[in-house]
Amino acid sequence: MLALFWAEISYQARGLDTDGLRSGFYIINGVVYAMQVLVWVLLWLNPNPSMLVLSKLFIAGLSFSAALGFLLYGGRLFLMLKRFPIESKGRQQKLSEVGRVATICSC
């Protein structure tokens, strides 16, 4: 949800349409959750080492994708805030907040 929020802010600041972001986010989440349930069911029905490896690879790939999302949209928002005038109210605080959260979530 945080990456979606940052993506919406980034798109709105550039004057782009955000209608497809939310529905795309929900569709992607639904597919990922369905795949996770399928992996769990397959692992429960056939608990062999290859299914265990597949399950671990799925979680690793999902975590990597989430980290990329945080880096991409958090980085864009950070750079956008950095370009704001220095006199902007709350700029420095928001800049450090976005930078910290993007770094922590990506790690």
TrEMBL record:
Entry's Gene Ontology cellular component terms: vacuolar membrane
Q: Name the predominant localization.
A: membrane
What is a single Pfam family found in this protein's UniProt entry? Answer: THH1_TOM1-3_dom
Query: How the protein sits in the membrane?
Result: Multi-pass membrane protein
Looking at the record, the residues that make up the THH1/TOM1/TOM3 domain are 1-106
Key words of the record: Membrane, Transmembrane, Transmembrane helix
Q: Membrane-spanning regions, if any?
A: 24-45, 57-79
Instruction: Give the location in the cell.
Output: Vacuole membrane
Query: Is the keyword ATP-binding assigned to this protein?
Result: no
PANTHER family recorded for this chain? OS02G0683900 PROTEIN (PTHR31142:SF7), TOBAMOVIRUS MULTIPLICATION PROTEIN 1-LIKE ISOFORM X1 (PTHR31142)
Q: Which family does it belong to?
A: Belongs to the plant tobamovirus multiplication TOM1 protein family.
Name by which UniProt lists this protein:
THH1/TOM1/TOM3 domain-containing protein
What organism is recorded for this protein?
Answer: Aegilops tauschii subsp. strangulata
